[in-house]
Amino acid sequence: MATQNDNNNPKAKYLCSLKWNAIPLISWGFSATYKTELKNVVLDYNKIAIISNSKKWKNADWDFKNKLEEKVILITDANLNIVFASHSLHKMNGYREQEVLGKSPKMFQGKATVMTTSLEIREAITLQKPFVKQVLNYKKSGELYYCNIEGFPIFNKKGELVNFIAFEQAA
After folding, report:
1. What is the pTM of this model?
2. Closest by alpha carbon to 98, among 108, 87, 107?
3. Ordered per-residue pLDDT tens for the chain, 171 residues
4. CA-to-CA distance for 87 and 126, rounded, in angstroms?
5. Closest CA relative to residue 163, chosen from 92, 100, 83
6. Which of 163, 95, 101 is nearest to 128 (CA)?
7. Which are the contacts of 123, defined by CB distance < 8 A and separation ≥ 6?
8. Could you give the strand order of the β-sheet that contains 131-138, starting from the edge strand earlier in sequence?
9. CA–CA separation, 44 vs 140, rounded Å?
């Protein structure tokens, strides 16, 4: 290693003149985590764009990039089968998108779920109206958690119901 005593060594002079800022190795992990989360937001955003374009959503200006950073997004078809789940679903309840595709959001409910809340959500869906509710759901592990849900029907440019979208967040 070069030291300041190596006056005749240009490499030593240069190295000693540098101001070193040590970065702990642990910060590399934070950087990698952030990069992965950012990549997942972009992937999710692109999947939502494909769905909205293919279904010709009448109103597609939902600010998805910000919502994807803050909340879980679930999209179902008109029959309430899940067609999209954002990557952050796994953080909230332990499920990955592949495990929930084609299933009903009821899969997150169980014995402790309040039936009146479920019926109120069902009524809003039947009437094709937006709703905001807090539901007691189950994680993949069986653990209970409260989930704040903002649900909206989505119509195509002809006015036909094509999807439902839910913005969810653990309470």
Report:
1. 0.80
2. 87
3. 445 555 677 777 776 777 666 666 555 556 778 888 889 999 999 999 999 999 999 977 788 888 888 899 999 999 999 999 999 999 999 999 999 999 999 999 999 999 999 999 999 999 999 999 999 999 999 999 999 999 999 999 999 999 999 999 999
4. 28
5. 83
6. 163
7. none
8. 82-85, 72-77, 161-170, 144-155, 131-138
9. 21
